[in-house]
Structures are given as C-alpha cells and as structure tokens.
C-alpha cells in the first residue's frame, strides 16, 4: 500500500493550500486556489521532489551509488535530482538535450552548483545519449540507478496519489469542495498519480491536465497506461482507459519550451496579483490555459478551481530576454 512503500524524506510537506483572491477578482471568474508544490523546499522545489522521495528509496535499496537521469537543458527534474542526490550522498550524472549553452543560467547553473556531472546529447537524440551514458557508467564500475524522463515511472507516480491524500486532508480541514484541479501535464507521472489518488480519496471534481508538449490523445494514452501500471504497483486491479483521462492540448503554442505572449501574460498576472512566480515552460503554459478557459466561459464563474503549482521558477532566469521584450 501507498504508505508502506519505502520513501526518503526530501520535501517540506504538506505544501500550502491557499486562496488566490486578487487573481480571482482580476479574472472576474471562479474562486481560485493554489497548491504550492513550487514550495517543496529542495533547491528551488517542484513536483519532481515528491517523486524522488520514492525513487531514491528504491535506489538506496538496490545499493546504487550513482543517479542518472535525462531532460531538456532547463530541466527542473534534472535540477531536483541533482539536489536529491547531493542531500542523500549519491553521485549524480545528467544527460541534457542539445548543445552546451553559452551562458550557465537558470537550472543549468544550479545543476553545476549541486555537483552534478553534465553530458549534452549534441546531435544525438536525448534517449540514445542517455542509454550510452548509462552503459558507460556501468562499464566504469558505478552502481547506476537510472531515472527515466520526469521520474515518471509507476513508483514515481505513486507520489502524486499520496499528494491527493494530502490535499484531501487540507480540503476537509478548510471545509472546501473543488470543482476542478488544473495543472501542467507532460511526462504523465503527476497526472497518473493525481487520477489514482482522486479515485482513492473519492475526489468528485475534474482532474484536468493542460498538455505542455503532447497532442491530446497521445498524452491521454500515456497517462492511462501509467495509471494502470501504478494501480498494479499499489495492488489495485483497476484499468484506466483514455476516456478516463482529461487533457486539454489547446495551448501548445510554439512548442515545448517556447514561451509566447500567453505564457508571459499568465506569469505577469500571477506575479502582480499574488506575488507568485510561475515558470516559462510548464506552469506559465498551464496557467495561460486556465485563464483562457475562464475567459471563454468553459470554467464557470461559480466554480471553485485549484491550480496545482508544479514549480519551475528557476528557469525564469534563462528567459529574461523573452520575459522583458
Ligand atoms: C516536470 C514538470 C511538470 C510536468 O510533470 P509531469 O509529471 O512530467 O507531467 C510540470 N511542471 C513543472 C514545473 C515541471 O518541472
């Protein structure tokens, strides 16, 4: 069961559940709330910290000495893995997509400070380079624990099933009932965990992932598959189908990690009405989607809606130009 899975403590939990009164008023829309997983506390925080609590426990139980993972150049997942490794006494090796940047900024700067060893995929695909580095590390005698993109294994996803229990306690304590939870969805782990946790806690609202980079049905398929695997890990027989998974992919903009006017507006609105920092890649895009769904009346003014903040603000520094243009 969920609470019996081995876990190391990395995150400051529970993360706060707070109202967003000034933003709600500015949008003339629903009552908005926020779950502050940008405040998980580990070197800038974010949603990967919850997943890493389970993944590092497995790495330790397997006798690993080196954590290896992969991501985009400004990966929040890689930065949180580097921090978790430092705190727990593992070596950390990261494979980042593309070529080394001219400036060490944002998450890449933090990867360096946290002592991770960085490899760039260059002209190779990220996955090919990752497999090659895993093989080379093993050949060099390191005991490797390889974490897939986003930490989105069944074990990683269980962290968000547990997070739904955390939220459920907070909702009860605040006597609050939500109509929807809206968040940024990309490698399926957060989404799959929330869907399973919603089932376990009897959450009656919608779990709505705003896709950051995948077409709608592709992401629904990924989440349904991972949710089924995660349910198995938790000894539940439940099969999830695509029709169980709610995804909106209308806000893909210029593609992954391309910040446009919609993301910039969302970041500015959250900053200037609530003093909350979103990120340019994930939460900025998800919040832009939320704002548009409010303005177009898809989300009604009488609803209570939670925005689940998944972190990422350290990437803001890498987007200084685009943010102030
Ligand atoms: C990784 C990430 C997400 C997406 O989480 P998944 O579990 O990969 O879907 C959302 N927001 C931020 C800030 C992230 O770093």
How do you describe this structure in short?
α8 links the parallel β8 and β9.
Task: Present the secondary structure layout.
Elements: E1 17-19, H1 21-27, E2 31-36, H2 48-61, E3 66-71, H3 76-88, E4 91-96, H4 106-113, E5 117-120, H5 126-139, E6 144-147, H6 154-173, E7 180-185, H7 189-201, E8 206-211, H8 216-233, E9 246-248, H9 261-274, H10 283-295, E10 304-309, H11 320-324
Parallel strand pairs: 2-10, 3-4, 3-6, 4-5, 7-8, 7-10, 8-9
Antiparallel strand pairs: 1-2
The structure holds pyridoxal-5'-phosphate.
Alpha carbon gap, first and last residue: 50 Å
What radius of gyration results from the CA coordinates? 19 Å
Could you tell me the strand content as a percent range? 15-25%
What is the general shape?
Answer: globular
How confident overall, as mean pLDDT? 97
What is the N-to-C succession of helices and strands? EHEHEHEHEHEHEHEHEHHEH
Broad structural category: alpha/beta
Strands in their spatial order, largest beta sheet: 1-2-10-7-8-9
Tell me how many strands there are: 10
What summary fits the major beta sheet? 6 strands, mixed
Q: Name the hetero compounds present.
A: pyridoxal-5'-phosphate
- The poorly predicted ranges are none
Q: Give the helix tally.
A: 11
Query: Which bin fits the share of residues in helices?
Result: 40-55%
């Amino acid at each position: 069961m969920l609470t019996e899975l081995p876990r190391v403590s990395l995150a400051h939990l529970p993360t706060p559940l707070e109202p967003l009164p000034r933003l709600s008023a500015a949008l003339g829309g629903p009552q908005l709330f926020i779950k502050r997983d940008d405040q998980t506390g580990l070197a800038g925080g974010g949603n990967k910290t919850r997943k890493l609590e389970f993944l590092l426990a497995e790495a330790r139980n397997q006798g690993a000495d080196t954590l290896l993972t992969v991501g985009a150049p400004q990966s929040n997942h890689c930065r949180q893995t580097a921090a978790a490794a430092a705190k727990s006494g593992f070596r950390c090796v990261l494979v980042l997509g593309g070529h080394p940047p001219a400036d060490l900024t944002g998450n890449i700067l933090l990867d360096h400070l946290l002592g991770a060893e960085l490899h760039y995929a260059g002209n190779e695909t990220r996955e090919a380079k990752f497999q090659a580095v895993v093989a080379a590390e093993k050949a060099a005698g390191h005991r490797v624990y390889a974490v897939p993109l986003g930490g989105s294994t069944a074990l990683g996803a269980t962290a968000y099933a547990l997070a739904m229990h955390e939220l459920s306690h907070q909702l009860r304590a605040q006597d609050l009932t939500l109509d929807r939870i809206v968040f940024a969805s990309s490698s399926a782990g957060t989404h799959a965990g929330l869907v399973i946790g919603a089932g376990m806690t009897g959450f009656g609202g919608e779990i709505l992932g705003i896709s950051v980079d995948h077409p709608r049905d592709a992401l629904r398929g990924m989440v349904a598959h991972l949710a089924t695997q995660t349910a198995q890990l938790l000894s539940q027989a439940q099969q999830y189908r695509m029709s169980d998974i709610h995804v909106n992919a209308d806000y893909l903009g210029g593609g992954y990690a391309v910040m446009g006017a919609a993301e910039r507006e969302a970041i500015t609105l959250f900053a200037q009405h609530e003093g909350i920092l979103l990120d340019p890649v994930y939460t900025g895009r998800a919040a832009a989607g939320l704002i548009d769904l409010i303005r177009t009346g898809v989300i009604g003014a009488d609803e209570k809606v939670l925005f689940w903040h998944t972190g990422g603000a350290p990437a803001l520094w890498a987007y200084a130009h685009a943010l102030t243009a």
